[in-house]
Amino acid sequence: MNTLLIHAHPEPLSLNGSLKNFMVGRLQAAGHTVQVSDLYAMGWKAAIDADDSLDGAAGERFLPDADSRLAFANGRQSADIAAEQAKLEWADAVIIQFPLWWFSMPAILKGWFERVYANGFAYGVGEHSDHHWGDRYGEGRLAGKRAMLVVTTGGWESHYSPRGVNGPMDDILFPIHHGMLWYPGFDVLPPFVSYRVSRMDEVRFAATCAALGERLDTLFETAPIPFRRQNAGDYEIPSLTLKPHIAPGEEGFGVHLA
Amino acid sequence: MNTLLIHAHPEPLSLNGSLKNFMVGRLQAAGHTVQVSDLYAMGWKAAIDADDSLDGAAGERFLPDADSRLAFANGRQSADIAAEQAKLEWADAVIIQFPLWWFSMPAILKGWFERVYANGFAYGVGEHSDHHWGDRYGEGRLAGKRAMLVVTTGGWESHYSPRGVNGPMDDILFPIHHGMLWYPGFDVLPPFVSYRVSRMDEVRFAATCAALGERLDTLFETAPIPFRRQNAGDYEIPSLTLKPHIAPGEEGFGVHLA
Known about the structure:
The structure is a homodimer. By secondary structure, chain A is of the alpha/beta class. Chain A is 33% helix and 12% strand. In chain A, helix 1 (15-29) runs parallel beside helix 7 (202-217). Chains A and B meet through helix 5 and helix 6 of A and helix 5 and helix 6 of B.
């Protein structure tokens, strides 16, 4: 199978760099074809701007959404964006690897999503009617592909536990899992998170690789997170609120898991 | 009072640009001194790297945390970072204004936090002992200052309601409010969020300015979000989990509000 690894750490000799090398080797040894987008090494441009279209802004003002739609539709996107979209189309699975900085992904990776997820590619896809609100949240261009986060933190696991001061890791990652991966159709696998990595010695590194290797060996069998499909009947349209009889009385991120 | 406005939109003629201009005028008319960090106009560098220290990486490997600490302590930070820190020290209130892209802030703004929030400046501050775990979450260098988000979304308000498909707005913003603003000590005000802004006509723009103006007029009186202080007795140290008798049986972001 084809696996794309998106890697966002500035230092090749970091723990993240070592885990990336381990993942590439493990996947290749299992017979997969691997492409790596090493965002720092590529000098990835993080900020959306009018240069993302070969034609610049279409009108007097730069309109991020409309200009992205036009450039995508007309094959006039910046070459770096088109190349990453081609990798996504090629991939059967995508691994997104990063250190958790300020409770989200590094800026360079956020900018990869913002620019590669063009209007017409990852959003603004499909009909909008009274029974279907775009091909999103379980449908979309990336449906049928799998995605998994591989994340490191400096903080302790307890700090990210259900009553930990940082908030639960599942909730911190929800906007990525649900909002950025499930949204254009990916099946989202449970994340692989390594905590307190400043204290990682060789013994723990070996154990981490063993556990991560097992996740890679089962990449195409692991059950995805059971997010609800937006257009399959659980939500009112167009308010897109969960119907009253589904998880009655409950609120928050958790209600979007079946 | 001194107010710093951090603005992250690529187009000066956008709604966000118009709201920025409105805010500057309103604050100045009320007698405040205003500085604006217009990140796109400044060409803000989003990605952390070894160039963030005038000395480059201190060792063979670039260590984002350790090198940031050294550069901050020795006055060897890149000039753009030091300038933004000086603005934060100067400010009594900070307004952070952005369009919500993929359920978080734009990459360029995320990169502002990552680079300006140096080790020793916004994290890695204060003692770590069995009764105090760093000056953070209610203590820290930015304590005594106020912060408020001003956010626009394309999606409808119902999509961000407690049972809306995107997840509740308060939960989507929690990693920013709690993890990036309360963390170094800011008092965090309730956000000002404008939904479905692609349908903003002149009447709604006027109403939005009126409501936003009122928030600016009361910037120094509005009650902050009542996040719990990490070192004031509610949390076990060092596990940093909420003590069992506080919000017993509850979990998730909400338990961190008193």
